[in-house]
Design goal:
Length: 763
């Protein structure tokens, strides 16, 4: 029998195998760095964070793509292509929605980039991280981030309640709640509910040492305490429901045992809730607020508005990223929040993408879940000594009529039959995989009351979990030493030359002719360079495939284009947001200028006014430069053009001698914004202010009226209408009525109150 050449244990790995391993570890390290960067920078909600995060994601996917091209044939994850076919239809639907349907295309592009980043991370883990060690590194990084968030939360709650990452200050409504490196405590709760179930699974893992059980149990308990410190009602309730349902998915137990365990978990959680009610005043106050309001009022309003939007455009939706804009039509009186999303990922998706997008996404996810609903088939039972080959059962017609009937052969004792119960390692892996699924279940429940998938760091972690579950539920790959070929020759049974142990050619089939064996023996005597299909450097069977090479190059080109687009768009948005924050603070200072008291009563008021004007001009120039950079980088960002008009109008208020030319430039910027998105009420307000600066009162009135039609319950629109009407003596009564309407919608509107007092004192 022909034997493969022997190789000593010290034989170094082949170059392609070593390169593939290095590429895999490089992809895992880059992914871990990306997760850490995105999570630590407020979860990725800032545009400047996402500029680098998107670049890292594209670079990691490029490494995975190159690894596929240079790795052995057996490492190609061809079995995962069907997963992508389930998700690509929604990606195409979202792209079409952004390009042709969204009324706020620049916001829809951000939604598209967020989904693409989540999908790329999912593909990186599913197709690029084939070995367990790199995947464990990624999962370990997520656990370390959760522990770090717990430490930062303790720092926050011990005298630093205003602290946030990146030098930011905590919002007033979140004071007293832990948020860690996120700005939103609910986002931190979502991270905890993803990490707690896997850590619990490691606590009671079969075969775990006492040190592992103690360490994981302590970490799980600490993370649960951190979840309580967020006082996130949705997160706590979602985790409780997931933990109660957990035993129902344990298929090694009987159903009575599962239900009994569910009841025990329910009683334990009820006792824990009672303890929190009696010992933590903050938790008790938050729950009392919920009971006093008869539920969550603000979220109910958002959900009702989302359903109305869906009813207006049920099939294709209102457009990606359009919730905040179209919500103004459905805003009830007295509701002053400025929601970006519907606080329910499912309703938000339904209103933006319609039934078509909703069905494509969850239909694809459902298809993936259905195909992976069963475990990997167990190996067949090994043959026993007393087993005999099955004999064909003769037909009744072929049996002689005089043949006596035989008694059935007695079955062997049950004790001699092997029990096919899974091993401890199999149960441990299944338990951890199930725990990852429980974490995703808790996260999915939490998405019923929040917008967690719009937090980039959380979306990336969910993608890692989903890909890891699919990897663990796949059947084991064939050994790397066997490379199947489409050719029927015995070369398909040859092992790589770099195998650490001598392998023999598999025995031929009984029907194989001797000529095939002779050809195999001849092929074994050839060098790899002389044998077709075997490369001299790798020693594995590989056939060059020109279509695959072209697809790889096209993928790399698309990644490069995507990286450039994401970087440029996010940098433009970062500049716009920075400039808008500056002009918002300046607008508050300029509005308060007439009532501000000088610090020195003996100071010259004219000199103080000159100093203030110079400071305002300098700050407005800096803000204007940032917004101009945003419009230069991304001319399709309509909000940047509107902010440019806003900054120019503020300059006209400070530089009254240049009001006319500044008003002309503001009008140009506002009209560019309206050309891109005519359905945004704020853009019509910016146009009306610019026209008032140019003394075009009638046209300005039409612009403010258009804004009121789009946002009939907006205090901002009613205030600008009142201010516009107050400029003409004949319409001061109407201005007083508009100011009263603004104060009815928002009793704390300071500018409207000042305008009302001025109109009443000077009729």
């Amino acid at each position: 029998m022909p034997i493969l050449p022997k190789s000593t244990p010290s034989t170094p790995p082949t170059r392609p195998a070593a390169a593939a391993a290095i590429a895999e570890w490089a992809a895992a390290i880059l992914l871990c760095a990306n997760l850490a960067w995105t999570a630590l920078c407020l979860g990725g909600v800032r545009a400047e964070t996402m500029a680098w995060s998107g670049l890292l994601t594209c670079a990691t996917f490029a490494i995975v793509t190159l690894r596929r091209m240079t790795s052995p044939v057996t490492n190609h994850p061809a079995a995962n292509h069907w997963v992508h076919r389930c998700l690509l239809p929604f990606t195409a639907c979202l792209l079409i929605n952004v390009l042709f349907l969204s009324p706020v295309r620049w916001l829809g592009i951000f939604d598209l980039f967020l989904w693409l980043q989540t999908y790329l991370v999912f593909s990186i883990v599913l197709d690029g991280l084939q070995n367990k060690a790199p995947r464990r590194l990624v999962l370990g990084t997520i656990s370390v981030l959760a522990v770090l968030a717990l430490i930062l939360s303790a720092y926050q709650l011990n005298g630093h309640q205003n602290w946030l990452m990146l030098g930011r200050a905590q919002a007033s409504q979140y004071i007293g709640r832990a948020s860690g490196f996120f700005g939103n405590p609910n986002s931190l709760a979502a991270l905890y509910i993803l990490v707690i179930p896997p850590v619990l699974a490691l606590t009671w893992r079969r075969g775990a040492s006492g040190v592992q059980r103690l360490a994981c149990g302590y970490i799980a308990l600490a993370l649960m305490l951190g979840l309580v410190m967020t006082i996130s009602r949705g997160g706590l309730l979602a985790l409780a429901i997931a933990l109660i349902c957990w035993p129902c998915f344990t298929n090694v137990w009987t159903w009575p045992g599962r239900l009994l365990t569910c009841g025990a978990v329910l009683v334990t959680l009820a006792l824990a809730a009672l303890a929190l009610w009696t010992t933590m005043p903050s938790v008790r106050a938050r729950l009392q607020t919920l009971a006093h309001d008869h539920g969550e009022r603000s979220r109910i309003i958002l959900w009702q508005a989302s359903l109305k939007m869906t009813a207006d455009a049920p099939v294709l939706g209102a457009g990606a990223g359009s919730f905040n804009t179209i919500f103004e039509k459905h805003r009830p009186e007295g509701f002053l929040n400025n929601p970006q999303w519907a606080h329910n990922e499912y309703l938000n998706l339904l209103s933006d993408q319609g039934i078509a997008g909703f069905a494509l996404l969850f239909g694809g996810i459902g298809a993936i879940a259905w195909r992976n609903r069963r475990k990997t088939p167990r190996p067949p039972r090994p043959a026993l000594p007393h087993d005999t080959p099955p004999r064909p059962t003769p037909s009744r017609d072929t049996l002689p009529h005089y043949a006596p009937s035989r008694p059935p052969r007695p079955a062997p004792p049950r004790d001699t039959l092997p029990r096919h119960a899974p091993t401890d390692a199999m149960l441990a892996d299944a338990s951890f995989t199930r725990a990852l699924g429980i974490g995703l279940l808790a996260f999915a429940l939490a998405c019923l009351v929040d917008f967690h998938m719009h937090i980039p760091a959380l979306g990336m972690i969910v993608a890692v979990y989903a890909a890891e579950i699919l990897k663990r539920r796949q059947p084991p790959a064939p050994p790397a030493s066997i490379t199947p070929l489409s050719s029927p020759t015995p070369l398909a049974l040859l092992a790589p030359a770099a195998s650490p142990t001598p392998l023999a050619l598999a025995p031929p089939a009984p029907t194989a002719p001797a000529a095939l064996l002779a050809s195999a023996e001849t092929a074994l005597q050839k060098t790899p360079a002389q044998t077709p299909g075997i490369t001299a450097t790798s020693g594995v069977l590989a056939t060059p495939n020109l279509p695959n090479l072209i697809a790889t190059l096209a993928t790399l080109a698309a990644l490069l284009l995507l990286a450039c687009l994401m970087t440029n768009t996010y940098r433009a948005e970062a500049a716009r947001v920075s400039g808008r924050e500056q002009i918002d603070s300046l607008a508050i200072q300029i509005a308060a200028q007439p009532t501000a008291q000088p610090a020195d009563p003996l100071a010259d008021p004219l000199a103080l006014r000159a100093q203030q004007t110079e400071a305002y001009q300098s700050a407005l120039a800096r803000a204007g430069a940032l917004i101009a950079e945003a419009t230069r980088r991304d001319p399709g960002n309509a909000q940047a053009w509107a902010d440019c008009a806003y900054a120019l109008a503020l300059r006209a208020r400070v530089e009254k001698q240049n009001a006319a030319p500044l008003g002309r430039d503001a009008e140009t910027a506002a009209r560019k914004a309206l050309a891109l998105a005519p359905g945004v009420p704020e853009f019509w307000i910016r146009l009306g202010v610019a026209l008032d600066l140019r003394q075009r009162t009638a046209e300005a009135g039409d612009a403010f009226t258009r804004a009121l039609r789009l946002a009939p319950a907006s205090p901002l629109a009613w205030y600008h209408q009142a201010y516009h009407l107050s400029l003409t003596p004949a319409t001061r009564d109407l201005a007083l009525g508009a100011a009263a309407t603004c104060l009815r919608l928002d009793p704390g509107h300071r500018d409207a109150n000042i305008l009302r007092v001025r109109l009443e004192s000077n009729p």
